[in-house]
Amino acid sequence: MKVAVLDIKGKETGRKAELSDAVYKIEPNEHAIYLDVKQYLAHQRQGTHKAKERAEIVGSTRKLKKQKGTGTARAGSIKSPIFRGGGRIFGPRPKDYTQKLNKNVKRLARKSALSIKNSDKAITVVEDFQMEAPKTSDFKQILAALGIADKKSLIVLGNTNNNVYLSSRNLPGAEVITSSELSTYKIMNANSVVLTEGALEGIEANLSK
What we know:
Keywords: Ribonucleoprotein, Ribosomal protein, RNA-binding, rRNA-binding. InterPro entries: Ribosomal_uL4, Ribosomal_uL4-like, Ribosomal_uL4_dom_sf. The two termini are 19 Å apart. This protein is α/β, with parallel strands linked by helices. β4, α5 and β5 form a beta-alpha-beta unit. α4 crosses α5. The chain contains seven helices and six strands. The protein has two domains: 150 residues, Ribosomal protein L4/L1 (Ribosomal Protein L4, Chain: A), CATH 3.40.1370; 51 residues, no CATH class. The protein is elongated, with a radius of gyration of 27 Å. A six-stranded mixed sheet has the order 2-1-3-6-4-5.
């Protein structure tokens, strides 16, 4: 499948880019997408949540009052969860949220996500570009020229470009990554996916295995 290559002014360069049908035109597997997105979101959790339980509270273990005859509920030490400053009942503990997912499933999920975006005509191919200095206004002009200024966009570069990354960092609706950082979640979370020519080779090399 061939698509037109645009420049950063949104005009056709006259060149065509070849998109592999094995990557951008497969029957999407929605369950694979679900599993990969679920794993990605789970891995964003640090799992460092912790609350002190009764045994970890520093305080007296003396019984506050006698068991019977007071007319009120029986009570143990001041560390009891029913008192202010006492331990928490079944409080959160540190936990590892990482999930294992087969590499073939992850690869299928990314290809499925790209195929969905391709069928929705949400993929644009642009020529490789550089920015002389990090400047948000210049980057906004590029997005406007490509017609995606008001969309949540994902720009995929072939290699790390610090100026382009810094120029996009203040824009909440735009994200710049390299082809090696491409994930199913980032693809599905974007309304428009912009691929540079340099990124195409890396994507197909990773997903055509």
